[in-house]
């Protein structure tokens, strides 16, 4: 059996950490027993308010209602920039690392202020007002952060659309939020290739008559089409513009942004977040989860098009006056050593990435990692999917040289900030477990009848009390928010994830609830079977789904990607079945194993089991929305090689 190793908090880590286990216990208890006291202290210490709130908190989860710091006035850009200027104007706010390793830049807080205020004035001059929606469709360049902060400064609501999305996906999102302004670049650069962003915008806008301004950052100077009157160059528009732009006083409950979920389970939803609670959640978790201390270099590898980029590249770090690194490129360009080279080049202290990236780099072996020093690193993080214990150990041993704790952070676009996570100075780690709730978070496991499960057990993960950065609405479709998150289990926020709680009260995310497979009465989480399969040296990645089975109710269908350069054999199949039997039990053995050169993934790297389930069940006419797939061609291959049941 694969033994889950326990990693106690090293003394050296505990001693210098902001929060040790005693502090965690005390603060957690306070946060749930005296929430008024706890949250008013946190909101005062983390944020600067122009005017205090009238009511700290009011919520009714039965109706999906939540309000935090209502009546309080603040501005997110002011909190992320202006208030730092006096002490830290010359400190670097953003380190930018280009796709090409010879390109990088450093932007101080003072420079950031100059960019953001001028851009804010340009937006105003184009008629953008408080409450208007602005679409940001950008590569990973500092202007993406300037654009978000400029919107926040004037009270416009941004909707960042990942730069890898197609013109159709972009059009749908612009129309859904009725954006009138788009901020983009001529082209993006990723892995040495050019991405035709402006061209995509032009295509999308054919069906968006309300868009009156397109601001274009010159990134590559590639040739683009131009529509006079509508299009304007970013650098020309900002030239000579005043830096005098007083921040709008926003109510804590005024909208800050809309962000469409990545769509791994269905049609994307425009998740709406508000100002005060969101910023507090992002800032607090950035500081405590990553144990962030002044002067450290923090690198989150997500794209700003995802919530992880919003909360942990831009808002959390900047609210805390941190130095945040923004990377334009990809992990394997120019070669598979790039992440680790960037860490050495900029002396990164805290590194936060996704299991999909870790597994891809694991496939390349240890050499690309070991070529680099990584001695500046002291903490690693993971987010986006359950991290299988094998990838966890590799991350810990090979990347972190057994020195750096890993925070496996569970959260969602809808939660705004991290909800279940270790704190490095407080929490003994178990590979594959997101461990314990963050302050104020009250997770529960519910059984099929919606009853809370006590002690160790498995069920549906729900949250039983409001937290400041929770979703407030689905833009334009409030009913959809209620239906999706607050109807199935009245009085709870329903996460859509399944989880197990062990004897120590640690949470293990087992995958989406609709990914739980019921084989002859055994409820099996996809993550458990996948973790067992990837333990095999020959397996790079695996995804399992259920399909109808005459005898067992459901059978397990596994899609398995072998290691690079390896020819899969029948022998390997037998070994995999034996491995699953040994790790979980023979009831969890996949009936069918299909070799998959690639798996369908969202643009943010999550496996889309929804599509695999359709393939396994032979429901090919009805694959659903595939517009958010990173590489639609992998689907055809899987269909062609589909195994008959
Ligand atoms: P959609 O809701 O449109 O299907 P999505 O849920 O993939 O898209 P996100 O909000 O980015 O979009 O992802 C949140 C989900 O990612 C969680 O519900 C969970 O399934 C998974 N997840 C995130 N972090 C972790 C983690 N540390 N461990 C396990 N699962 C995680
Ligand atoms: Mg989701």
Automatic annotation (TrEMBL):
Pfam families: ACAS_N, AMP-binding, AMP-binding_C. Keywords: Acetylation, ATP-binding, Ligase, Magnesium, Metal-binding, Nucleotide-binding. Residues 82-464 form the AMP-dependent synthetase/ligase domain. Acetylated. Deacetylation by the SIR2-homolog deacetylase activates the enzyme. GO terms for cellular component: cytosol. One of its GO terms (molecular function) is metal ion binding. Its cofactor is Mg(2+). Transmembrane segments: none annotated. The keyword Coiled coil does not apply. CoA binds at residues 190-193, 308, 332, 520. InterPro entries: Ac_CoA_lig (IPR011904), ACAS_N (IPR032387), AMP-bd_C (IPR025110), AMP-bd_C_sf (IPR045851), AMP-binding_CS (IPR020845), AMP-dep_synth/lig_dom (IPR000873), ANL_N_sf (IPR042099). Residues 24-80 form the Acetyl-coenzyme A synthetase N-terminal domain. The modification N6-acetyllysine is found at residue 606. ATP binds at residues 384-386, 408-413, 497, 512, 523. Gene3D superfamilies: 3.30.300.30, N-terminal domain of ligase-like (3.40.50.12780). Residues 528-606 form the AMP-binding enzyme C-terminal domain. GO terms for biological process: acetyl-CoA biosynthetic process from acetate. It catalyses: acetate + ATP + CoA = acetyl-CoA + AMP + diphosphate. The keyword Transmembrane does not apply. Mg(2+) binds at residues 534, 536, 539. Its EC number is 6.2.1.1. Belongs to the ATP-dependent AMP-binding enzyme family. Catalyzes the conversion of acetate into acetyl-CoA (AcCoA), an essential intermediate at the junction of anabolic and catabolic pathways. AcsA undergoes a two-step reaction. In the first half reaction, AcsA combines acetate with ATP to form acetyl-adenylate (AcAMP) intermediate. In the second half reaction, it can then transfer the acetyl group from AcAMP to the sulfhydryl group of CoA, forming the product AcCoA. This is Acetyl-coenzyme A synthetase. The lineage of its organism: Bacteria, Pseudomonadati, Pseudomonadota, Gammaproteobacteria, Pseudomonadales.
């Amino acid at each position: 059996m694969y033994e889950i190793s326990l990693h106690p908090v090293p003394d050296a880590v505990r001693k210098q950490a902001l929060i040790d286990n005693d502090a965690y216990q005390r603060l957690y208890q306070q946060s749930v027993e005296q929430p008024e006291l706890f949250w008013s202290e946190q909101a005062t210490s983390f944020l600067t308010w122009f005017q205090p709130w009238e009511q700290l908190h009011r919520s009714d989860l039965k109706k999906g209602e939540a309000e935090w710091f209502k009546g309080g006035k603040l501005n997110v850009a002011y909190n992320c920039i202006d208030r730092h200027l006096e002490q830290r104007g010359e400190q670097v706010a953003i380190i930018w690392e280009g796709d090409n390793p010879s390109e990088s830049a450093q932007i101080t807080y003072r420079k950031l202020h100059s960019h953001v205020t001028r851009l804010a004035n340009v937006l105003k001059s184009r008629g953008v007002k408080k409450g208007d929606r602005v679409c940001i469709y950008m590569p990973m360049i500092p202007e993406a952060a300037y654009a978000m902060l400029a919107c926040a400064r004037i009270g416009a609501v941004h909707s960042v659309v990942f730069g890898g999305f197609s013109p159709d996906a972009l059009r749908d999102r612009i129309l859904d939020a009725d954006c009138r302004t788009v901020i983009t670049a001529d082209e993006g650069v990723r892995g040495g290739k050019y991405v035709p962003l402006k061209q995509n915008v032009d295509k999308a806008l054919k069906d968006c008559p309300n868009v009156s301004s397109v601001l274009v950052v010159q990134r590559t100077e590639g040739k683009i089409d131009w529509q006079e009157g509508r299009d304007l160059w970013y650098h020309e528009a900002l030239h000579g513009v005043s830096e005098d732009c007083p921040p709008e006083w926003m109510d804590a409950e005024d909208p800050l942004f809309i962000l469409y979920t990545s769509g791994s389970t269905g049609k994307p939803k425009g998740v709406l977040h508000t100002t005060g609670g969101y910023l507090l959640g992002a800032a607090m978790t950035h500081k405590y989860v990553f144990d962030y201390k002044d002067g450290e270099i923090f690198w989150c590898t997500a794209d700003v098009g995802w919530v992880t980029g919003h909360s942990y590249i831009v808002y959390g770090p900047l609210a805390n006056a941190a130095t945040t690194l923004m990377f334009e490129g990809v992990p394997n360009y120019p070669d598979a050593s790039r992440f680790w080279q960037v860490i050495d080049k900029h002396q990164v202290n805290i590194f936060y990435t996704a299991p999909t990236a870790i597994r891809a780099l694991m496939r390349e072996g240890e050499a690309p990692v070991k070529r680099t020093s990584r001695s500046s690193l002291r903490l690693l993080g993971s987010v986006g999917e359950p991290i299988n214990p094998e990838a966890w150990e590799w991350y810990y041993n090979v990347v972190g040289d057994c020195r750096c704790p890993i925070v496996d952070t569970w959260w969602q676009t809808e939660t705004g900030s991290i909800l279940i996570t270790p704190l490095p100075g407080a929490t003994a780690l178990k590979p594959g477990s997101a461990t314990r709730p963050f302050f104020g978070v009250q997770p529960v496991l519910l059984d099929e009848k919606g009853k809370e499960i006590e002690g160790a057990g498995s069920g549906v993960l729900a949250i039983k009390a409001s937290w400041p950065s929770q979703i407030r609405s689905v833009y334009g479709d409030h009913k959809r928010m209620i239906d999706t998150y607050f109807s199935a289990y009245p009085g709870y926020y329903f996460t859509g994830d399944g989880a197990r709680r062990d004897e120590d009260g640690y949470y293990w995310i087992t995958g989406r609830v609709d990914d739980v497979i019921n084989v002859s009465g055994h409820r099996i989480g996809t993550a458990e079977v996948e973790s067992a399969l990837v333990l095999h040296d020959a397996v790079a990645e695996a995804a399992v789904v259920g399909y109808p089975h005459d005898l067992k109710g459901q059978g397990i269908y596994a899609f398995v990607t072998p290691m690079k350069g390896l020819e899969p054999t029948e022998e390997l199949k037998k070994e995999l079945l034996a491995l699953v039997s040994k790790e979980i039990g023979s009831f969890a053995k996949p009936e069918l194993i299909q070799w998959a050169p690639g798996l369908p993934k969202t643009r943010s790297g999550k496996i889309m089991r929804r599509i695999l389930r359709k393939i396994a069940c032979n429901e090919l006419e009805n694959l659903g929305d595939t517009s958010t797939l990173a590489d639609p061609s992998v689907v055809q291959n899987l269909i062609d090689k589909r195994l008959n049941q």
